[in-house]
Amino acid sequence: MTLDDIGLPPFRPRPPWLGGHLQTVRNALMKPAVQRPPASETPLRLPVSDGTGDILHAVLDQPVDAGEGLPLVLLAHGIAGSAESYYMRATAARLLGLGYRVLRLNLRGAGPSRIDCGRHYHAGRSQDLRDAIDGLSPELTALGIVAIGFSLGANTVLKLAGEQGAKGPVIAVVSICAPIDLGATTRTMNRRGNRFYQSYLLKAFKAEYVAPGALLSDPLRTAVEAARSFVEFDRTVTAPRNNYPTPEAFHAANSARHFVSGIRVPALVIAAKDDPIIPFSSYRAVEWSKSPSILPAFTRGGGHVGHHGRDGIWYVDAIEKFLTALAGRDGHN
């Protein structure tokens, strides 16, 4: 499958949102509303399997006229996001209009999951996605799962697909602006020009990390409060809390770039060369041609989970065309 096969036009930015920074902050500045087609919203509680008793909260969106023969779509958000994040709701709205059922998942400790989770999500918690899928009714998963991730959640779905291989409930994945090299991403966030992003995201991440429901030792709680960068946070919090001896060990074990070679299901990988948060050098370091099931969609512009185009959000158009091509290939209507 190629970009021409799915009929995806080049990304053309929508003025005045020109350049990676404006593309990235556009939603925060404009606070756009999402227009949804008629659909029901059902809250779900999905337990994890690691013995902690943690429970993930999710929202199942079901259109009034569900399409026949369509898989369930699972959406995984980015850092400091939730099922209610704009990009989650905007993507769900488009897919609902196409007849797909959509599961908007709150990762462990995010949004309403916080109160029922002692632990917290990180970019490599792919087992949590497996547990969420296992907790769904067979009727929902009978035709497979398309896992779509944004930023941190995109790293998670790529890792999940690489671990699964050819056989499993996930039949396709879409990654939007994944930090496929976690160490390189934290170092990029620590650059002087990215202080705004780091400050904004780290403040929100730290707040949810210590919110009611979190089980933290006093030393870890102190480390969370003291961290002034994601580099420091990974060293003093993420690595020790998740039983890694060093942040480098955590990054090596959880960065999606180490798992993409194992992906055997169709995968659309979207990234922007001007993303101010995710270094595109991480993508250049991967030999994508050795993974024929992966369709890279790398754009010159678009920023981080931006891609605000002249006709709407380009990555949402890309998701629609990718899923339509998959349905046609599999003989669905």
Short précis:
The chain has 333 residues and is of the alpha/beta class. It contains 13 helices and 10 strands.
Largest sheet: 8 strands, mixed
Mean pLDDT rating: 95
Q: Mind telling me which CATH architecture this is?
A: 3-Layer(aba) Sandwich
The tally of domains stands at 1
Which percent range fits the helix content?
Answer: 25-40%
Question: In CATH, what is the homologous superfamily?
Answer: Alpha/Beta hydrolase fold, catalytic domain
- Tell me the name of the CATH class: Alpha Beta
Low-confidence stretches: none
Task: Describe the secondary-structure layout.
Layout lengths: L2 H4 L13 H11 L8 E9 L7 E9 L8 E5 L9 H12 L4 E4 L20 H9 L3 H4 L3 E6 L1 H13 L5 E7 L5 H8 L5 H15 L8 H9 L3 H12 L5 H8 L12 E6 L8 H4 L9 E6 L8 E2 L2 E2 H16 L4
Parallel strand pairs: 3-4, 3-5, 5-6, 6-7, 7-8
Antiparallel strand pairs: 1-2, 2-4, 9-10
Helix pairs in contact: 4-6
Characterization of this structure:
- By secondary structure, this protein is α/β, with parallel strands linked by helices.
- The chain has a single domain, classed as Rossmann fold, CATH 3.40.50.1820.
- The chain has helices at 3-6, 20-30, 86-97, 126-134, 138-141, 152-164, 182-189, 195-209, 218-226, 230-241, 247-254, 281-284, 314-329; strands at residues 39-47, 55-63, 72-76, 102-105, 145-150, 170-176, 267-272, 294-299, 308-309, 312-313.
- Strands 1-2-4-3-5-6-7-8 form an 8-stranded mixed β-sheet, with helices on both faces. The protein has a two-stranded antiparallel sheet with strand order 9-10.
- Helix 4 crosses helix 6 (152-164).
- The model has no long low-confidence stretch (mean pLDDT 95).
